[in-house]
Amino acid sequence: MSVGVLALQGDFREHAALLRGLGAEVELVRRPEELDRVNGLVIPGGESSVMDKMARAFGLAEPLRSRIRSGLPVYGTCAGLIMLADTVLDSIRGQESLGGLDITVRRNAFGSQTASFETDLDVPVLGVAPVHAVFIRAPVVDTVGHRARALATLADGRCVAVEQGNLLGTSFHPEITGEHRFHEYFLRTVARVGFGG
Q: Which of 15, 159, 163, 173 is catalytic?
């Protein structure tokens, strides 16, 4: 099982290290031919507008959209969640997403980097123990469409983790806290789907 990590920008190294620690074969994806070799893909945190521009510049945007539509399992954290959203609020002019998740997401919903925070979340699909979540210039899911489902919400009810079929997204960064359950959950999806690499 080969899992790709989109390595155009952001904290892709942290995701790659976590996935390798869980026993996955990891491919850093920067070109369409690398995308063709993987059974699942993680889109890391970073800057979604830069990631979008680089995906288009590297000829990856359309292959990514096509693979997502074909059923490739994809997990997006923070900027990766924005990249997977069908609708993005507060985007910069000309910014595009890859789509796939039937959600509306708001960029930088909690303010600047100085407004970053940590909290514990109940995520029933991952078990009883709470998930310690770190939010850094994080998005929030404003609307969860009928095809998607919320996996976790803040105390005020705002959605910060969502899934839809083979797609998974979180507003926060489990890869930087040593929280591995989301990645394990994602790897189980990759193994179950058996999407050709």
A: 173
